[in-house]
Amino acid sequence: MRRRTSILLGASLGLGAAVLFVFGANLRSGATALNGALIEPPLPAEDFTLTSVAGPVRLSDFLGRTVVLFFGYTHCPDVCPLTMSRVAQALKALESDADRVQAIMVSIDPERDSPGRMAEYVQSFNPGFLGLSGSAEEVSRVAASYGIFYARAAASGESDDYLVDHTATVTVISPEGSIQMLWPTDLRSEEMASDLRYLLRR
User: Fold this and answer.
1) Are 92 and 55 in contact, with CB atoms under 8 Å apart?
2) What is the distance between the alpha carbons of residues 109 and 150, in angstroms, rounded to a whole number?
3) Which strands make up the sheet holding 178-183, listed edge to edge?
């Protein structure tokens, strides 16, 4: 199995343009305290319903809490486990404020990622993390609404295993249900924690 995952950024032209604009605005304004791209004004976060191990879950179920939303898959060899580990470390650094944040991972590989497998995977990083899956059509619709591109890569050798190339941006959603910030792939856990402290104080 290949030990790499291609990260495809800027899949959504509208959201991609917003990311570039906000990163540029942050730099021009000297907003060096922030590590991700602050979205000003915030964009509406599309509500959706997918399936957890306990049943259907809506994004709007978490109004009143900050949501850290990531799209990935459990067979991902590198970026996904690294991202989830960094989110877990960031929430640990928040201490009691971590209760105000809900981390959600949506599978972009529903063929292999059942709700049960998703629960087992995300809870290995943090027992409070939520893993969601759904039909191929449901996942495709939700991913597209958040500017997430993904595509199945060819299996290597004679193996039936395969990788999924995907956008690895992390979306931070406000308690009011708006997209507040986007994190790039290489953000460290301490940078995530710093951004979350800023957002929770707003």
Assistant:
1) no
2) 9
3) 37-44, 178-183, 170-173, 66-72, 101-107, 130-132
Residues in the chain: 202
pLDDT, tens only, 185-194: 999 999 999 9
Q: How confident is the model at residue 157 (pLDDT cuts 50, 70, 90)?
A: low
User: What's phi and psi for 55, nearest 5 deg?
Assistant: 125, -170
Q: What is the CA radius of gyration of the chain?
A: 16
Give the helix/strand (H/E) hosting 180.
Answer: strand 178-183
What is the reported pLDDT for 160?
65
Name 157's Cβ contacts closer than 8 Å, sequence gap at least 6.
none
Picking from 178, 185, 190, 142, the residue whose alpha carbon sits closest to that of residue 39 is 178
pLDDT band, residue 69 (cuts 50/70/90): very high
Higher pLDDT, 31 or 41: 41
If one counts every other C-beta atom within 10 angstroms of the C-beta of residue 86, the result is 21
Place of tokens 């199995």: 1
Q: How far is CA 14 from CA 80, 125, 152, in A?
A: 24, 32, 23
Strand partners, 104: 69, 130
